[in-house]
Amino acid sequence: TELTAPTAALAAYGPNAIISHRTAATIWGLLPTRPADPIHITLLNANRRSRPGVRVHRAQRAETRRRHGLRVTSPAQTLADLPPHELERAYNEALVLGLTTHQEVRRHAARSPALRAVVEDSAGMTRSKMERALRALIKQAGLPAPQSNVKLHGYEVDLYWPDHRLAVEFDGWSTHSSRTAFERD
User: Fold this and answer.
1) What is the DSSP letter of 29?
2) pTM of model > 0.90
3) Phi, psi for 148 (deg, rounded to 5)
4) Which of 32, 40, 106, 178 satisfies CB 3.0 to 4.6 Å to 23 for a cystine?
5) Do strands 147-152 and 155-161 pair parallel, antiparallel, or not at all (unpaired)?
6) What's the Rg (C-alpha) of the chain?
7) In this predicted model, what pLDDT tens digit does every residue of 93-102 receive, in sequence order?
8) Rounded Cα gap, residues 95 and 105, in angstroms
9) How far apart are the first and last CA of the chain?
């Protein structure tokens, strides 16, 4: 299964080892698994080398949790360890899945300029690829960033610009459970 290699890496590196970085992100469900990726392990106060298929990182301390019985960096710490190009998607997933909060992530943002930029730029979570794509187009066009998935007059709207009194519902038929729900939404 997908946990066999991380479990083996933890066993090989001992009690000071924690699954971290992109491997932790896949275990938390923040990013998809890529079979060719190495297993990322952070060693606390230990000095051992990487092995084939295992990338070792070193740290004095780490915020850890248990996931599927494995020692894994917390979702907020995992985000701080990710490369910039994967952060926005992983951050959004962490919020949508309820694994962390904006405030928890903000505490880790000092370690990562890329994470700090995502946290400061974020106007809420998105719930679909279409919403993320539209937000990217809005940003690329230099338009003001909207808030995402905001309650407005008892309804939740996908994008909202309060200063312009503009709300946008962007998802299509498949996101709404029935014709009645689609028309109501």
Assistant:
1) T
2) no
3) -115, 145
4) 40
5) antiparallel
6) 19
7) 888 788 988 7
8) 10
9) 40
